[in-house]
TrEMBL record, chain A:
GO terms for molecular function: 4 iron, 4 sulfur cluster binding; coproporphyrinogen oxidase activity; metal ion binding. Belongs to the anaerobic coproporphyrinogen-III oxidase family. HemW subfamily. GO terms for cellular component: cytoplasm. PANTHER family: COPROPORPHYRINIGEN III OXIDASE, RADICAL S-ADENOSYL METHIONINE DOMAIN-CONTAINING PROTEIN 1, MITOCHONDRIAL. GO terms for biological process: porphyrin-containing compound biosynthetic process. Keywords: Chaperone, Heme, Iron, Iron-sulfur, Metal-binding, S-adenosyl-L-methionine. InterPro entries: Aldolase_TIM, Coproporphyrinogen-III_oxidase, Elp3/MiaA/NifB-like_rSAM, HemN_C, HemW-like, rSAM, rSAM_sf. Residues 1-228 form the Radical SAM core domain. This is Heme chaperone HemW. The keyword Iron applies. CDD domains: Radical_SAM. It comes from the Bacteria. It comes from Parafannyhessea umbonata. SUPFAM superfamilies: Radical SAM enzymes.
């Protein structure tokens, strides 16, 4: 019983980046709303702990938005509230401009083990085009100071962005590697509606973001990072041995997690959902046959800050049956380099029928998207990395019926 | 001495034909003197106010109450109102109490507005003696003013010039009058100035119609001679035809006969639309109204046919009848083959009100079972396809349009084909003949060169041209129907800035050097993409089509070569590159629902495509041939 991972979301930033459609708002420095919000999040972490939901929790992730924008004191308080529940790993997302020495000290003091720094690029013009508020030197300095402080340091990089060239991309990769970090995440820029970039390129996909460019840059990243000893363990994630993000891996391996904060997502087994309902009576009873519940907090940041506890929040809910959950596990597992193991496949065969699962596996192999592992599991091929949606689609197609949804 | 009909405003009822007083009027209306009838249509450039003026006329004559006046009363079908085009003809009767003390019967005949319906337009105009030509007081004479005025003058109609929108500050009616005289050679001194918006001048317009439009001629005692303008099917009453009576009288109970098709029927009632159907004792000479035929098969009632007495037929039918034959044939296939029967049922239901629709079953290797459907033209095809999809919930693929070819085989026999798939092997073909049209374009002399070039580009031959006035030339030419159906009309309109009017009739069949152009996807011929084209155009067409298909067909997991071929010879090629990257890498704080929904959305998108072998092909690819000239 209990979740294995804890996610807390901080929806505040100094300014909104041109590509960003996450749950975050540009907020004035020192706005008391941030302190109130962090305090509310810390209260809910304690509430979940006292309800027994976090008994088996191993990892934590404080994401955003920009958690480091909270400032050393507020941030330290929130991390300290999470730390007791995250014995193996506690990551905090950081932006270079707000990862100051006092923030670093606060993180170390409160029990964070890892920082994930949003660098995106080490080219000044590219950073400006993305609407980032930091410069290249500041970014590299933040990485180096994180490493020097003894934290595990990860860095986000974005490819197929405005002004980026093959050369500048190689440069960004080499620059961040020179800081001695153990983990890199690589994302092709996704131009979303309702973002500054989405509005600018509403008429069609710009050449810098073309599919071929994205593919080439993702492959260039795999080569450069691999050569430096960072192996790809997930579609977007590369790590030195032992430095893979345990929290990230929980998402892809069916480990339940609790999400706290505006826009935060969680996944609970039916039993934990029933426990959560004792604190949040407005949540509907799970329909018969529910195996897994996915919930996303829909309360705004002010409502969240004022909430006395998880019972005051509103949620979007999805109720998955055992069969749907089994298909989802296969879909998610195929994002990992090691794919899905024999045990997971065996469970899927039981839940979904051996014939259907074997047919899906055969299709994935026939299309060259996946291959058998020496130990009998199934892992993505090179082609399966780039055409992931095809592969995941084959697996999710195994799910019978439609997922029941509700809002509360 | 004509009887005075009591206008509705005096008895306070909604219709002139008020329930209380109807006996008075019905008795008298039957005897309406020819001199008290005016049959006319309203023609105008788009947005010059044809519909608002029609509405005002209905309102001012108390045919409908203001509160019931939904704008554009005459266009009734949803698609007609949405697209702003008229597909069916419509005739509304209004009673007008004129200043001379007489009450006149006005029959306002609305005509279809597209070249696909040229024949229907000509029949509707044949039912009129006059036309109100509406010109916008701020815009003046424009392209369609010219082309519509030409159509009306060709039909020998009396023209009532009418200058609309005089309420606008930028109106300059005097200059517009000069334009009408100079550009159209229509006397415009007495042009009526109106505002459809405020209603100002509508009374004057009605008076002008009385004085400028000739009353109909005809002999009330002669055998019945009535022209069918249009028809529709009513589940309970059978086919109801809109007619114009040229001679004689039509009454309920008469034994009647279709002169061209020969079928006889018992007249089950007559009446007129005001705009609701109102039954009458009789339809007299010169009048326009409807007749309930009781016939259960819409195919027996054809626009342009003449209705007469069975036992005492008129000597000559109304001139100009020919069967509205389908000109364009396309394959219609349900994307989901399970919808085949539903498609058949839907076509049968549509045919009831659209007898020009024809179809035969067709089988395609690529698309499965469907129908080869005949249409009057491409707009007709679009409207029908849209109605099938919207009203019957079908997802359809339409294939490239074709005409009816005559294929003479080496064994001496001749077959007619409307689908490229039916073309015999090239070694068994002696020659192929295609239908030509005799076309007539009226255009200002400035655009003569442009039209001649367009005709040449479309394999046509200019026969002769006649100056109708300094401002207009009538050009006659022969052109293959296959060229005309694709984009000729749109190009004619754009190259003449809309000034050209087009009229055509079927000509003869002529031998042409035609070949079948095949399209191969991933090395396999896709029969549904084949079409017949002139050899001289085959190379350009093949190249353009391969390029267009490359744009339309989305990237697949593998590279898809697209080839154009005549027989075994590949003459063009393009390639849809393989999908290189299709994965949502970013993890939004563990938001898995978002990723899953993306996958579901992608799957939905694929459902709307057709799998041809292993290639997913979107619907619009099958009509790519219509889009190659878009650039």
């Amino acid at each position: 019983m209990g979740v294995g991972a804890l996610y807390v979301h901080v929806p505040f930033c100094r300014s909104k980046c041109a590509y960003c459609d996450f749950s975050s708002w540009a907020t004035r420095a020192g706005d008391p709303l941030m302190g109130a919000y962090a305090a509310s999040a810390a209260r809910m972490v304690s509430q979940a702990g006292s309800m027994g939901l976090l008994r088996g929790c191993r990892t934590g992730y404080l994401g955003g938005g920009t958690p480091t924008y909270l400032g050393a004191d507020v941030l330290g308080g929130l991390v300290a509230a999470m730390a007791p529940h995250c014995p193996s790993e506690l990551t905090v997302e950081a932006n270079p401009d707000s990862l100051t020495d006092d923030v670093l000290d606060a993180l170390l003091g409160a029990g964070a083990t890892r920082v994930s720094v949003g660098v995106q690029s080490t080219n000044a013009a590219e950073l400006a085009a993305l609407g980032r508020v930091h410069g290249p030197a500041q970014a590299l300095d933040a990485l180096s100071r994180g490493v020097a402080a003894g934290l595990d340091v990860s860095c986000d990089l974005m490819c197929a962005t405005p002004l980026q060239t093959d050369e500048s991309w190689e440069r960004s990769l080499a620059d961040v590697l020179s800081c001695g970090i153990g983990h890199v995440s690589v994302y092709p820029l996704q131009i979303e509606d309702d973002t500054a970039l989405g509005r600018r390129y509403a008429d069609g996909d710009p050449a810098f973001n073309a599919e071929d460019v994205q593919a080439a840059r993702m492959e260039a990243a795999e080569r450069a990072l691999g050569a430096a000893g960072l192996a790809r363990y997930e579609v977007a994630s590369y790590a030195r041995p032992g430095k893979a993000c345990a929290h990230n891996r929980a998402y892809w391996t069916g480990v339940p997690y609790l999400g706290i904060g505006t826009g935060a997502s969680g996944m609970l087994c039916a039993g934990d959902y029933a426990i959560l309902r004792t604190a949040a009576p407005r949540l509907p009873k799970a329909p018969d046959g529910t195996w897994r519940v996915r919930l996303t907090v829909t309360s705004g940041r002010r409502a969240f800050a004022e909430a006395a506890g998880m019972g005051d929040l509103s949620y979007d809910l999805e109720f998955l049956t055992e069969q749907q959950a089994a298909a989802e596990d296969l879909m998610l597992g195929m994002r990992l380099a090691k794919g899905v193991g024999e045990g997971l496949l065996a469970h899927a065969r039981r839940a979904l029928g051996a014939q259907a699962v074997d047919a899906a596996v055969a299709e994935a192999r026939r299309e060259g998207l996946a291959q058998e592992r020496p130990d009998g599991g199934l892992a993505p091929t090179r082609r399966g990395w780039l055409l992931g949606n095809e592969l995941y689609g084959i697996m999710w197609d195994l799910a019978p019926g439609t997922v029941l949804e509700a809002s509360a | 001495m004509s009887p005075r009909i009591l206008p509705a405003r005096r008895c306070g009822h909604k219709f002139t034909f008020c329930p209380t007083h109807s006996w008075v009027m019905m008795g008298r209306m039957n005897k309406t003197d020819l001199s008290l009838i005016r049959n006319f249509s309203i023609v105008a450039h788009i947005d010059h106010g044809k519909s608002t003026i029609s509405d005002r006329i209905l309102e001012l004559t108390h045919t409908v109450d203001e509160r019931d006046l939904s704008s554009q009363m005459l266009d009734s079908m949803d698609i007609e109102q949405e697209r702003g085009i008229t597909i069916k003809s419509n005739a509304v009767r209004v009673m007008y109490a004129a200043d001379d003390g007489n009450t006149y019967q006005f029959n306002l005949i609305d005509t279809p507005g597209h070249v696909d319906f040229t024949y229907e337009v000509s029949r509707s105009l044949a039912a009129c003696e006059g036309a109100v030509l509406v010109v916008d007081a701020t815009q003046g004479v424009e392209a369609q003013t010219v082309s519509n005025a030409n159509l009306a003058m060709n039909a020998n109609l009396d023209i009532v010039p009418c200058i609309n929108k005089i309420d606008l500050p930028s109106a300059h009616p005097d200059e517009v009058k000069e334009e009408i005289e100079e550009d159209l050679a229509i006397p415009a001194d007495d042009a009526v100035c109106v505002s459809g918006k405020t209603g100002e001048g509508i009374h004057d317009l009605l008076e002008a119609i009385v004085y400028l439009v000739s009353p109909p001629k005809g002999d009330a005692n002669a055998p019945l001679k009535a022209l069918i303008l249009d028809s529709y099917f009513d589940e309970y009453r059978g086919v109801v035809a809109t007619v114009r009576v040229f001679d004689g009288v039509m009454r309920k109970g008469d034994r009647l006969k279709m002169m061209a098709l020969g079928d006889t029927f018992l007249c089950d009632g007559v009446g007129c639309k005001r705009p609701l159907e109102t039954s009458l004792d009789e339809l007299g000479v010169g009048e326009v109204g409807y007749v309930v035929t009781g016939l259960k098969d819409p195919a027996l009632v054809k626009t342009g046919d003449t209705i007469t007495y069975e036992d005492r037929p008129c000597a000559e039918p109304c001139p100009g009848y020919h069967e509205a034959k389908p000109m364009v044939f396309t394959g219609l296939f349900p994307i989901d083959n399970k919808q085949y029967e539903n498609l058949r049922d839907a076509l049968e239901k549509l045919k009831v009100n659209d007898p020009s629709l024809t179809w035969t079953p067709e089988t395609s290797v690529a698309l499965g079972f469907g129908f080869r459907v005949g249409f009057l033209g491409l707009l007709h095809m679009e409207v029908v396809k849209e109605r099938l999809e919207r009203e019957f919930g079908l997802d359809l693929i339409a294939t490239s349009p074709s005409v009816n070819y005559h294929v003479y085989k080496t064994d001496g026999s001749m077959i007619e084909i409307t689908s490229p798939q039916d073309l015999p092997d090239v070694t068994r073909i002696e020659r192929i003949e295609e239908p030509y049209l005799k076309a007539k374009v009226i255009v200002p002399p400035d655009f003569m060169g442009a039209v001649m070039q367009l005709v040449i580009d479309h394999r046509g031959e200019t026969r002769d041209m006649v100056y109708l006035s300094e401002k207009s030339v009538e050009m006659h030419f022969d052109i293959p129907l296959a060229e005309l159906i694709l984009d000729f009309f749109d190009q004619l309109k754009s190259r003449t800035k809309g000034y050209a009017s087009l009229d055509y009739e079927m000509g003869e069949y002529r031998a042409s050097d035609l070949v079948k152009l095949d399209i191969l996807l991933a090395g396999e011929v896709v029969d549904a993409l084949s079409f017949i084209v002139h050899r001289d155009k085959a190379y350009d067409m093949a190249r353009a089509l391969c390029d267009k298909l490359k744009e339309i067909i989305p990237r697949q997991q593998f590279e898809v070569p697209i080839q154009g071929a005549i027989g075994n010879k590949i003459i063009s090629r393009s390639t849809v590159k393989a999908h290189r990257k299709d994965v949502l890498a970013k993890c939004y704080g563990g938001d898995i629902s978002r990723k899953r929904k993306l996958l579901e959305k992608q799957k939905e998108g694929k459902k709307r495509m057709k799998s041809i072998g292993s290639v997913e092909v979107p619907q619009e690819a099958f009509l790519a041939v219509l889009k190659v000239d878009d650039e």
